[in-house]
Amino acid sequence: MCGASLPAASADVLAQNRRVSTPFMIEKTQRDAGRAWDKFYKANEDRFFKNRHWTDREFEELRQNDHDLLTHDTPVLLEVGCGVGNTVFPLLEKNAQLRVHCCDFSPRAVDMVTKHPAHDAERVNAFVYDLVKDTSLSAHLAARPAWPAVSTLSLIFVLSAIPPHEQVRVVRALLDHIPTGASVVFRDYARGDLAQLRFHTRRDAPWAEPSLLSDSHHWYRRGDHTMAYFFTRDEVERLFAEAGGVAGSVEEVVRTDTNRKTGAIMERRFIQARFRRV
């Protein structure tokens, strides 16, 4: 389902329990974001997220037989917020020609990428990079001078981990590093997703304090102190329009699953977009 409206019951849940965190906690959450993700990967290693075998199904730009490249037969992906490689390694396995620049601001996550059994330094350029604070992306890309220019930039569940007031600047900086004609693929959490509803309904210890980080944005602090933002389709359209230099389409995707154990119906909501650098 695409473009479905938010059910009234979900809207009611989001209207409840909207106590905002203190300014100190908000500032601390932003300041310690990298450290929080590093602790997350220390605790979970590569066990938390499943490999994303669906990315080339959802985005034709990531398929092996996609011939809509810039000027070369070799596709080059820039994967930001790569984590432990849940997107990178399934794509490398499917496409022998693919080369990948990938980065994360968790040194522990990048270390796990380089130690992965499928890691090949000839095909993977993995590096630590903070999208908000660092400005050395050009130097990292230049570490593979023989590779063609980036043909696809992927932003998959990464902007939701960035404070809303930084998102446009981050996207604009990334777009500056891809050439005209390159593709941008985006997927992230949508407003009303099951993960957001849980912030308003859970009462166990890790969620006891107010998790909402803004009274004007759907921006939260998880129990492990990482951040989560929930987008609307209009927000993503405005974000990329303000960043400038791209044209494309944005849609809301709704997936309904049933918990086999409890029989509960779970609704997952995502914003998905495809752009072209113009």
Automatic annotation (TrEMBL):
List the molecular function annotations (GO) for this entry: RNA methyltransferase activity; S-adenosylmethionine-dependent methyltransferase activity
Q: Does the keyword Cell membrane apply?
A: no
Q: Which GO terms describe its biological process?
A: methylation
Q: Which InterPro entries match?
A: Methyltransf_12 (IPR013217), METTL2/6/8-like (IPR026113), SAM-dependent_MTases_sf (IPR029063)
| EC code | 2.1.1.-
The domain of life is Eukaryota
Concerning SUPFAM superfamilies, the annotation shows: S-adenosyl-L-methionine-dependent methyltransferases
Start and end residues of each Methyltransferase type domain: 78-175
Q: Which family does it belong to?
A: Belongs to the methyltransferase superfamily. METL family.
**Biological function:** S-adenosyl-L-methionine-dependent methyltransferase.
Q: What is this protein called?
A: tRNA N(3)-methylcytidine methyltransferase
